[in-house]
Amino acid sequence: MSTRFDVLVLLVLLCSSSNPLFSQNLVKVAAKERQRRSQLKTASPLYTNQHLRSSRSTSVLTPLRQEHSVDKASVISNLDLADRASLNPDAERSWSARFIALRQRLEQSLAREAQLNRWMAQLFAGCGPETDYDWNYFAYVRRELEQTAEQIALSRQLLARLREDLRKSGQPASWEYSRLAEKIPPEPLTSPPQAEEFSERYWQERLSQIDEHYGSQVNRMRQEAFEMRFGRPPRGESELMLVQSPEPCTPPFALELISKISAVEGDHEQARTDLREEARKKGALPGWFR
Predict the structure, then answer these.
(1) Core-most of 8, 66, 96, 290, by most CB within 10 Å?
(2) Residue 248 Cα distances to 94, 192, 239, 260, angstroms
(3) DSSP code at position 1
(4) What does the alpha-carbon distance between residue 222 and residue 242 come to, in Å, rounded to a whole number?
(5) Among residues 174, 216, 199, 197, which one has the least CA distance to residue 285?
(6) Helix (H/G/I), strand (E/B), else coil: 183
(7) Per-residue DSSP letters for 56-104?
(8) pLDDT tens for each residue of 241-262
(9) 3-state helix, strand, coil in the chain (%, to 5)
(10) Are the beta carbons of 74 and 151 closer than 8 angstroms?
Protein backbone atom coordinates (compact mmCIF):
# COMPACT_ATOMS: atom_id res chain seq x y z
CA MET A 1 0.00 0.00 0.00
CA SER A 2 2.79 2.37 0.81
CA THR A 3 4.48 1.69 -2.50
CA ARG A 4 1.33 2.49 -4.47
CA PHE A 5 0.93 5.77 -2.56
CA ASP A 6 4.48 6.90 -3.40
CA VAL A 7 3.97 6.17 -7.06
CA LEU A 8 0.73 8.14 -7.05
CA VAL A 9 2.42 11.17 -5.49
CA LEU A 10 5.20 11.00 -8.07
CA LEU A 11 2.74 10.92 -10.95
CA VAL A 12 0.90 13.95 -9.55
CA LEU A 13 4.13 15.93 -9.34
CA LEU A 14 5.13 15.06 -12.88
CA CYS A 15 1.79 16.09 -14.22
CA SER A 16 1.82 19.37 -12.36
CA SER A 17 5.30 20.26 -13.74
CA SER A 18 4.07 19.87 -17.30
CA ASN A 19 1.05 22.02 -16.64
CA PRO A 20 0.96 25.22 -18.84
CA LEU A 21 -0.18 27.26 -15.88
CA PHE A 22 3.03 26.42 -14.08
CA SER A 23 5.12 27.67 -17.03
CA GLN A 24 3.10 30.88 -17.21
CA ASN A 25 3.84 31.55 -13.56
CA LEU A 26 7.56 31.29 -14.25
CA VAL A 27 7.29 33.79 -17.12
CA LYS A 28 5.49 36.28 -14.87
CA VAL A 29 8.16 35.93 -12.19
CA ALA A 30 10.94 36.59 -14.74
CA ALA A 31 9.15 39.66 -16.10
CA LYS A 32 8.73 41.08 -12.61
CA GLU A 33 12.44 40.51 -11.94
CA ARG A 34 13.39 42.37 -15.12
CA GLN A 35 11.14 45.26 -14.15
CA ARG A 36 12.66 45.42 -10.68
CA ARG A 37 16.20 45.49 -12.05
CA SER A 38 15.36 48.22 -14.59
CA GLN A 39 14.19 50.51 -11.75
CA LEU A 40 17.52 50.23 -9.89
CA LYS A 41 19.92 53.27 -10.14
CA THR A 42 22.92 51.08 -10.96
CA ALA A 43 21.75 48.12 -12.92
CA SER A 44 23.84 45.01 -12.43
CA PRO A 45 24.57 42.84 -15.49
CA LEU A 46 21.75 40.43 -16.36
CA TYR A 47 22.78 37.29 -18.19
CA THR A 48 20.26 35.24 -20.18
CA ASN A 49 20.40 32.28 -22.49
CA GLN A 50 21.32 34.63 -25.35
CA HIS A 51 24.66 35.37 -23.66
CA LEU A 52 25.34 31.66 -23.35
CA ARG A 53 24.46 30.98 -26.98
CA SER A 54 26.39 33.96 -28.43
CA SER A 55 29.83 32.39 -28.51
CA ARG A 56 31.68 29.77 -26.59
CA SER A 57 34.92 31.73 -26.94
CA THR A 58 33.44 34.88 -25.36
CA SER A 59 33.26 34.85 -21.59
CA VAL A 60 30.12 36.10 -19.90
CA LEU A 61 32.40 38.21 -17.70
CA THR A 62 33.37 40.47 -20.61
CA PRO A 63 30.61 43.09 -19.95
CA LEU A 64 31.77 43.35 -16.36
CA ARG A 65 35.38 44.04 -17.39
CA GLN A 66 34.27 46.69 -19.88
CA GLU A 67 32.31 48.54 -17.20
CA HIS A 68 35.43 48.79 -15.01
CA SER A 69 37.90 49.76 -17.75
CA VAL A 70 40.08 52.85 -16.96
CA ASP A 71 39.66 56.01 -19.02
CA LYS A 72 43.29 57.18 -19.38
CA ALA A 73 42.29 60.55 -20.85
CA SER A 74 40.17 61.44 -17.82
CA VAL A 75 42.95 60.36 -15.45
CA ILE A 76 45.57 62.53 -17.18
CA SER A 77 43.22 65.52 -17.26
CA ASN A 78 42.87 65.35 -13.48
CA LEU A 79 46.61 65.35 -12.80
CA ASP A 80 48.13 68.45 -11.27
CA LEU A 81 50.84 70.52 -12.95
CA ALA A 82 53.76 68.61 -11.44
CA ASP A 83 52.40 65.25 -12.55
CA ARG A 84 51.77 66.50 -16.06
CA ALA A 85 55.36 67.76 -16.18
CA SER A 86 56.57 64.25 -15.40
CA LEU A 87 54.82 63.01 -18.53
CA ASN A 88 56.75 65.54 -20.65
CA PRO A 89 59.99 64.05 -21.99
CA ASP A 90 61.57 67.53 -22.05
CA ALA A 91 60.86 68.24 -18.36
CA GLU A 92 64.34 67.24 -17.20
CA ARG A 93 65.95 69.30 -19.96
CA SER A 94 63.97 72.37 -18.86
CA TRP A 95 64.97 72.05 -15.21
CA SER A 96 68.56 71.33 -16.23
CA ALA A 97 68.75 74.48 -18.37
CA ARG A 98 67.46 76.69 -15.55
CA PHE A 99 69.89 75.30 -12.98
CA ILE A 100 72.84 75.52 -15.39
CA ALA A 101 72.05 79.15 -16.28
CA LEU A 102 71.81 80.20 -12.63
CA ARG A 103 75.01 78.37 -11.69
CA GLN A 104 76.90 79.98 -14.55
CA ARG A 105 75.66 83.37 -13.44
CA LEU A 106 76.80 82.67 -9.87
CA GLU A 107 80.20 81.37 -11.01
CA GLN A 108 80.79 84.46 -13.15
CA SER A 109 79.94 86.75 -10.24
CA LEU A 110 82.25 84.83 -7.90
CA ALA A 111 85.08 85.01 -10.46
CA ARG A 112 84.49 88.75 -10.83
CA GLU A 113 84.60 89.20 -7.05
CA ALA A 114 87.93 87.35 -6.84
CA GLN A 115 89.33 89.54 -9.63
CA LEU A 116 88.20 92.73 -7.90
CA ASN A 117 89.77 91.64 -4.63
CA ARG A 118 93.08 91.13 -6.45
CA TRP A 119 92.77 94.60 -7.91
CA MET A 120 92.10 96.08 -4.47
CA ALA A 121 95.23 94.36 -3.14
CA GLN A 122 97.27 95.96 -5.94
CA LEU A 123 95.87 99.38 -5.06
CA PHE A 124 96.72 99.01 -1.38
CA ALA A 125 100.26 97.98 -2.36
CA GLY A 126 100.76 101.51 -3.72
CA CYS A 127 102.38 102.88 -6.83
CA GLY A 128 105.78 103.30 -5.20
CA PRO A 129 107.47 104.60 -2.07
CA GLU A 130 105.07 107.05 -0.41
CA THR A 131 102.96 107.20 -3.61
CA ASP A 132 99.34 106.12 -3.87
CA TYR A 133 97.19 105.47 -6.88
CA ASP A 134 94.49 107.90 -7.92
CA TRP A 135 91.42 107.73 -5.70
CA ASN A 136 89.20 107.07 -8.72
CA TYR A 137 90.66 103.57 -9.01
CA PHE A 138 89.74 102.83 -5.37
CA ALA A 139 86.21 104.17 -5.84
CA TYR A 140 85.72 102.16 -9.03
CA VAL A 141 86.84 98.85 -7.48
CA ARG A 142 84.76 99.36 -4.34
CA ARG A 143 81.68 100.22 -6.35
CA GLU A 144 82.17 97.12 -8.52
CA LEU A 145 82.64 94.97 -5.41
CA GLU A 146 79.34 96.19 -3.96
CA GLN A 147 77.46 95.52 -7.18
CA THR A 148 79.06 92.09 -7.54
CA ALA A 149 78.15 91.17 -3.95
CA GLU A 150 74.52 92.03 -4.73
CA GLN A 151 74.64 89.84 -7.84
CA ILE A 152 76.06 86.93 -5.83
CA ALA A 153 73.35 87.24 -3.18
CA LEU A 154 70.63 87.45 -5.82
CA SER A 155 71.96 84.43 -7.70
CA ARG A 156 72.07 82.35 -4.54
CA GLN A 157 68.55 83.42 -3.63
CA LEU A 158 67.22 82.48 -7.08
CA LEU A 159 69.07 79.17 -6.93
CA ALA A 160 67.52 78.33 -3.55
CA ARG A 161 64.08 79.28 -4.84
CA LEU A 162 64.51 77.11 -7.91
CA ARG A 163 65.65 74.21 -5.74
CA GLU A 164 62.49 74.59 -3.63
CA ASP A 165 60.32 74.70 -6.77
CA LEU A 166 61.90 71.45 -7.91
CA ARG A 167 61.16 69.84 -4.54
CA LYS A 168 57.51 70.95 -4.63
CA SER A 169 57.07 69.68 -8.18
CA GLY A 170 57.82 66.15 -7.06
CA GLN A 171 60.51 65.67 -9.68
CA PRO A 172 63.76 63.81 -8.86
CA ALA A 173 66.16 65.90 -6.78
CA SER A 174 69.02 64.73 -9.02
CA TRP A 175 67.69 66.95 -11.82
CA GLU A 176 69.35 69.88 -10.03
CA TYR A 177 72.70 68.55 -11.24
CA SER A 178 71.52 67.21 -14.59
CA ARG A 179 73.63 68.17 -17.64
CA LEU A 180 70.95 67.17 -20.13
CA ALA A 181 70.50 70.75 -21.35
CA GLU A 182 74.13 70.80 -22.51
CA LYS A 183 73.49 67.88 -24.87
CA ILE A 184 72.00 69.93 -27.69
CA PRO A 185 71.68 68.07 -30.97
CA PRO A 186 73.90 69.55 -33.71
CA GLU A 187 72.30 71.84 -36.23
CA PRO A 188 71.83 70.43 -39.71
CA LEU A 189 74.69 71.23 -42.05
CA THR A 190 73.93 73.89 -44.63
CA SER A 191 75.37 73.72 -48.09
CA PRO A 192 78.11 76.30 -48.80
CA PRO A 193 77.16 79.20 -51.09
CA GLN A 194 77.62 78.69 -54.79
CA ALA A 195 80.04 80.74 -56.88
CA GLU A 196 77.31 83.09 -58.11
CA GLU A 197 76.37 83.88 -54.50
CA PHE A 198 79.77 85.48 -53.70
CA SER A 199 78.51 88.95 -54.55
CA GLU A 200 79.62 92.29 -53.18
CA ARG A 201 76.71 92.24 -50.74
CA TYR A 202 77.79 88.85 -49.41
CA TRP A 203 81.33 90.04 -48.61
CA GLN A 204 80.09 93.32 -47.13
CA GLU A 205 77.84 91.38 -44.76
CA ARG A 206 80.74 89.17 -43.68
CA LEU A 207 82.85 92.28 -43.07
CA SER A 208 80.10 93.90 -41.00
CA GLN A 209 79.84 90.81 -38.80
CA ILE A 210 83.58 90.93 -38.11
CA ASP A 211 83.50 94.65 -37.31
CA GLU A 212 80.54 94.24 -34.96
CA HIS A 213 82.11 91.29 -33.15
CA TYR A 214 85.45 92.96 -32.38
CA GLY A 215 84.11 96.50 -32.14
CA SER A 216 81.73 95.64 -29.28
CA GLN A 217 84.57 94.06 -27.30
CA VAL A 218 86.89 97.03 -27.75
CA ASN A 219 84.13 99.52 -26.89
CA ARG A 220 83.24 97.73 -23.65
CA MET A 221 86.87 97.53 -22.50
CA ARG A 222 87.55 101.18 -23.33
CA GLN A 223 84.53 102.31 -21.32
CA GLU A 224 85.69 100.28 -18.32
CA ALA A 225 89.23 101.66 -18.56
CA PHE A 226 87.87 105.23 -18.81
CA GLU A 227 85.64 104.84 -15.74
CA MET A 228 88.59 103.42 -13.78
CA ARG A 229 90.75 106.42 -14.55
CA PHE A 230 88.27 109.31 -14.48
CA GLY A 231 85.53 108.00 -12.18
CA ARG A 232 82.70 108.71 -14.64
CA PRO A 233 81.30 107.37 -17.93
CA PRO A 234 82.72 108.86 -21.15
CA ARG A 235 80.79 111.69 -22.80
CA GLY A 236 81.63 110.68 -26.36
CA GLU A 237 83.77 108.53 -28.64
CA SER A 238 86.60 111.05 -28.55
CA GLU A 239 87.05 110.67 -24.78
CA LEU A 240 87.43 106.90 -25.12
CA MET A 241 90.72 107.41 -26.94
CA LEU A 242 92.24 108.97 -23.81
CA VAL A 243 92.68 105.53 -22.25
CA GLN A 244 95.28 104.64 -24.89
CA SER A 245 97.75 106.99 -23.15
CA PRO A 246 98.10 105.76 -19.55
CA GLU A 247 99.45 107.92 -16.77
CA PRO A 248 102.84 107.21 -15.17
CA CYS A 249 101.16 105.85 -12.00
CA THR A 250 98.61 103.43 -13.42
CA PRO A 251 97.61 100.25 -11.54
CA PRO A 252 98.75 96.93 -13.05
CA PHE A 253 95.17 95.76 -13.73
CA ALA A 254 94.44 98.96 -15.67
CA LEU A 255 97.60 98.51 -17.75
CA GLU A 256 96.59 94.90 -18.41
CA LEU A 257 93.19 96.07 -19.65
CA ILE A 258 94.79 98.63 -22.01
CA SER A 259 97.11 95.92 -23.32
CA LYS A 260 94.13 93.64 -23.93
CA ILE A 261 92.41 96.41 -25.92
CA SER A 262 95.42 96.63 -28.23
CA ALA A 263 95.46 92.83 -28.66
CA VAL A 264 91.78 92.71 -29.65
CA GLU A 265 92.28 95.56 -32.10
CA GLY A 266 95.12 93.56 -33.67
CA ASP A 267 92.89 90.49 -33.96
CA HIS A 268 90.25 92.67 -35.58
CA GLU A 269 92.59 93.92 -38.27
CA GLN A 270 93.89 90.41 -38.92
CA ALA A 271 90.36 89.09 -39.38
CA ARG A 272 89.63 91.81 -41.95
CA THR A 273 92.85 90.96 -43.82
CA ASP A 274 91.98 87.26 -43.87
CA LEU A 275 88.53 88.03 -45.26
CA ARG A 276 89.96 90.18 -48.07
CA GLU A 277 92.34 87.37 -49.04
CA GLU A 278 89.51 84.81 -49.02
CA ALA A 279 87.37 87.11 -51.16
CA ARG A 280 90.20 87.72 -53.66
CA LYS A 281 90.66 83.97 -54.18
CA LYS A 282 86.94 83.64 -54.95
CA GLY A 283 86.85 86.43 -57.49
CA ALA A 284 85.91 89.50 -55.43
CA LEU A 285 86.95 92.90 -56.70
CA PRO A 286 89.39 95.03 -54.61
CA GLY A 287 87.00 97.98 -54.57
CA TRP A 288 84.39 96.02 -52.59
CA PHE A 289 86.34 96.51 -49.35
CA ARG A 290 87.10 100.21 -49.53
Answers:
(1) 96
(2) 52, 52, 19, 18
(3) -
(4) 9
(5) 199
(6) coil
(7) SSS-TTHHHHHHT---HHHHHHTS-HHHHHHT-TTHHHHHHHHHHHHHH
(8) 888 888 888 999 999 999 999 9
(9) 75, 0, 25
(10) no
Residue-wise burial string across 146-172, b where 16 or more C-beta atoms lie within 10 A, e elsewhere: eebeebbeebeeebeebeeebeebebe
Per the CB < 8 A criterion, the answer to whether 289 and 206 are in contact is: no
Q: Write the pLDDT tens digit of every residue in 3-35.
A: 444 544 455 445 554 455 444 555 565 666 667
pTM: 0.61
SS3 state of residue 128? strand
Name the least confident of 11-15, 47-51, 71-75, 97-101: 71-75
**If DSSP codes are grouped into helix, strand and coil, which group holds residue 43?**
coil
The per-residue pLDDT for 218 is 94
Angstrom CA distances, 117 to 86, 110, 263, stand at: 44, 11, 25
Between 92 and 26, the higher pLDDT residue: 92
pLDDT in tens, 103-137: 999 999 999 999 999 999 999 998 877 788 999 99
What does the alpha-carbon distance between residue 164 and residue 160 come to, in Å, rounded to a whole number?
Answer: 6
Nearest to 96 by CA among 164, 156, 166, 186: 166
